[in-house]
């Protein structure tokens, strides 16, 4: 069956790396029908939403969605009412990636992390972040409501007054955690990892930590060969820097996972090699972790490797594992050889040159 | 005036590094009266609190408190009712360091971070973490109370039911943030830093982010020569790994600061070189960031450098800056020479040997 693959290049280097990496699909000759859609800054200016209605329709019809990058100018523009066409409409900017994650219920944000020998101790692991609840659930406000003032007693609050405070609620649910943990253990099994680590803060957030721990161990009991470990998130951050090779899959709440995965991208050598997948039941979108990078857009300096690896993740998701392996292998080969690297990896090649080298390695490994 | 310095060696390697490093006080010949007090696991077993009442009294009389480390066995023991003397008393374990921070209102947790040339790009910066509110304010529970069910509407919660969920509230107050930011800018000024970065998540936690941002910029306006920067915490985590030299002082909410400071300890080469200060108005305690380290306790492998640097921070706090400089200089010298290092730094020296080298460098720099 033909798979529908929707490509949304978006803004800045998102467009550039899409253009550089997508030819790999032609080389691989797969039963995939590629379609392009519009997203990004221009549509924010025209419609007050970076994701046009027509694109939502395309997304609904696709088997997988590939996203380049979306400019984060929208938020500032919305606040400053900078866009003439939108002035006075009092629009509130909602990050397009958060819209995608929430509306499509893409509950697992998967970020594989790895380092080749020669750049420090080699390792590979994956961070799986909860993507629909936690501190991103949307309960963040200035002022403490009267109805909470009995519960939230604190000396600092008494001194400040209820209106001179802000609260943010981290919401975690059995439904949300069960599907997340199940996914994490399945992913570990499918990718040859023998340990899943829950990174939270049970030594301080005792009750929510216990809640997550109980659910985690309940799910773990169904996965005999995989070790379930519970670890304080600060210790995980330290170990990701010092001994990342000790991890298999790390699973964490939305904001904690956000921090750990950017940190892990740092450990693996920057954002240039970091792909990601946002997975739901029967829905998924894929994007390199780097953003639209306005500082280097148009200069030919963007590293296309993350986009190649991201396409690989999308292909794997659509059932083309062998093709994904070929892409992964080609990227590793080019990085290992070190002859054709973009400046972020210490080389002097352009986006196009590095992409050509990877494409060649796909054809003749 | 004679200063009162209370030393609480505590458990595990806490005792060992105190014993190894404290002789530096004799060498420096300062108007300090040193007193010892009891804290730790034994007192948990006897009194159901790791901090005995007599120690609280000593703390109240001291100008500064030095803490070695406290075993974290208490929590497990409390849960399992493992301690015969305490059985059936239904005691709840509260981390002694959290008790100290909250009861003494030590609102700023200061962790200087640095790396010498030769171990990667050299840098020095400091992480200042809010220490009394945020996600550590104590509002963490299983089950969503009816009174919140109007506000906390979320598809996952509807599917799970109010009792199959957990919530954790991050509370931030004007009072708490103003004193924190003021301290951070003062610290930057006093220590030669030209930038203070607020690490939060304003692009997602919009309202609390805006609240903190407004207060931050309000305080910053009083510090003309120091740049105020607001940054998403995930980007800060990435930059701490990739380009830590870009930071001066980083200031963050309690849990975010906890994660960033452990991550930064990783970047600087591990916990062996990481001191910390917990500062309030007229009160302070100082501790190395490493814990009691039961895995290496008693083996003579503990790195005493963090304790030396921690004593330095305490001396600086009590007004003995020149003495603190001598300790810092001696530690740097020994680390730089690389002849007498404990195993965590790649050497084969014992705690005592490395301490002796540092003591010698204090006497004859
Ligand atoms: C753009 C932002 C809302 C997003 C997040 O915080 O999830 C980004 O940092 C990411 O990690 O994909
Ligand atoms: C022991 C624990 C409660 C503590 C914390 O989380 O603050 C520790 O990790 C620290 O950073 O001092």
UniProtKB/TrEMBL annotation, chains A, B:
Keywords of the record: Oxidoreductase
Keyword Oxidoreductase included in the entry's annotation: yes
Keyword Magnesium assigned: no
Domain Isopropylmalate dehydrogenase-like residues, every copy: 4-358
Entry superkingdom: Bacteria
High-level lineage: Bacteria, Pseudomonadati, Pseudomonadota, Betaproteobacteria, Neisseriales
Family, as annotated: Belongs to the isocitrate and isopropylmalate dehydrogenases family.
Protein name as it appears in the record: Isocitrate/isopropylmalate family dehydrogenase
């Amino acid at each position: 069956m033909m798979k529908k693959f929707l490509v949304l290049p978006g803004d800045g280097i998102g467009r550039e790396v899409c253009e550089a990496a997508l030819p790999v699909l032609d080389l691989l000759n797969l039963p995939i029908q590629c379609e392009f859609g519009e997203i990004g800054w221009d549509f924010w200016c025209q419609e007050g939403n970076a994701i046009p209605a027509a694109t939502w329709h395309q997304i609904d019809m696709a088997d997988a969605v590939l996203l380049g990058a979306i400019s984060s100018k929208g938020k500032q523009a919305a606040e400053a009412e900078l866009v003439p066409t939108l002035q006075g409409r009092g629009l509130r900017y909602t990050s397009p990636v958060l819209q995608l994650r929430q509306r499509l219920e893409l509950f697992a944000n998967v970020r594989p992390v790895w380092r080749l020998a020669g750049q420090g101790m080699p390792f590979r692991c994956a961070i799986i972040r909860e993507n629909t609840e936690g501190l991103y659930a949307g309960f963040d406000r200035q002022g403490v409501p009267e109805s909470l003032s009995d519960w939230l007693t604190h000396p600092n609050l008494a001194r400040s007054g209820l209106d001179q405070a802000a609260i943010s609620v981290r919401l975690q649910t059995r439904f949300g955690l069960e599907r997340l943990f199940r996914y994490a253990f399945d992913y570990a099994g499918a990718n040859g990892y023998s340990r899943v680590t829950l990174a939270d803060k049970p030594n301080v957030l005792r009750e929510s930590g216990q809640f997550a721990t109980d659910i985690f161990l309940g799910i773990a009991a169904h996965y005999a060969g995989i070790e379930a470990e519970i670890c304080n998130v600060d210790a995980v951050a330290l170990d990701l820097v010092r001994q990342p090779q000790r991890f298999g899959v790390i699973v964490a709440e939305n904001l904690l996972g956000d921090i750990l995965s950017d940190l892990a991208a740092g450990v693996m050598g920057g954002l240039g090699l970091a792909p990601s997948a946002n997975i739901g039941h029967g829905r998924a979108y894929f994007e390199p972790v780097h953003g639209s990078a306005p500082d280097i857009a148009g200069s030919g300096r963007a590293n296309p490797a993350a986009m190649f690896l991201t396409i690989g993740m999308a292909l794997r998701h659509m059932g083309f594992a062998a093709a994904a392996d070929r892409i992964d292998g080609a990227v590793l080969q080019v990085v290992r050889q070190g002859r054709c690297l973009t400046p972020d990896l210490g080389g002097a090649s352009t986006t196009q040159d590095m992409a050509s080298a990877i494409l060649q390695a796909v054809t003749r490994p």
